[in-house]
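ok here's Adenosine deaminase domain-containing protein:
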Amino acid sequence: MEAEKEKEKEMREWCVALPKVELHAHLNGSVRDSTLLELAKQLGDKGDIVFEDVKDVIMKNGRSLPECFRLFELYHILTTDHDTVTRITKEVVEDFAMENVVYLEIRTTPKNNEAKGMTKRSYMNAVIKGLKTVEAVEVVLFDSNSRADKTPMSELGGDTRKKKIYVRLLLSIDRRETTLAALDTVNLAMEMKDQGVIGIDLSGNPVVGEWETYLPALEHAKELGIPITIHCGEVANRNEIRAVLDFCPQRLGHVCCLNDEEWKKLKSLMIPVEICLTSNVMTGGAPSLELHHFADLYNAKHPLSLCTDDSGLFSTSLSNEYYLVASTFGLSKAELFQLAQDAVEFVFAGDELKRSLRELFERVGKELTT
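and the structure:
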């Protein structure tokens, strides 16, 4: 028993030391529980919410799906304040960097809230301000042609210098939005491409909205050359799953509820998949860890990357997702390292940054896999 515990501890520590690439992280769902508790208490004191209604859910580990949805509502209320958005962004980046995430794509829906004096642009400015106020780690946030992307990454693991994390932003189209609002988000992404915005995401409640509503905005993004990732197959909507596969975005998130024909098509298209194990099990997209579609895609050598989805909401971390893959599917350290390294090829950032990340993995590879 002791030997097993020691083995688990060693593997968990190794998964933290592993340099990692995070491609599917929602900003609001990655808020620290301690911050959520503090901010919820402030809202309660102001009478905006009943603090006692959410206190237990915030402090609970292993939340049910209905409890998760209650927190989604809370996130929505919190992120209508510019200073809160800035603080959350700062903390989320620090938390990922402490887990040895070396490249992070944060996705978030730019909010338009006239009552709070918030526009989609001012919301994104608050996010970028958060990135620029990080002090615990060095954040590199530029376009792919900048000099900063060509500087060598500082070594990880035991190095006393500041950790470096490359951060890029994806603007999410929410499924509740109109075609016009979705087009606004795409245009904003284009306007802010020199400020670290590099892609478009389609997400939100999977049972809300129609594919045809967002299609003009997604086609517009494609015409502008903006990379696109789409939440796909969170529910068994056959028509939409087929339409998304036909659209052929650069990446897909989740892909839980595909049928045999759709799996076959996905594999033939070789669209990289953002795998979110804990999230999929908790939301019922996968029946269990053991029966998660990760194994099928991995064995088929399909391009995929491990991601957290909502690290705060689902009480996980990217290190933990790698540990779950090791303990559930028996992957070796060398295989885990390869999985992390392969994710570099699916980032939306430019070739120069990919080269920097490849060099980093080459440098630390021998040390971590021997």
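+1. Residues 143-160 have pLDDT under 50 and may be disordered.
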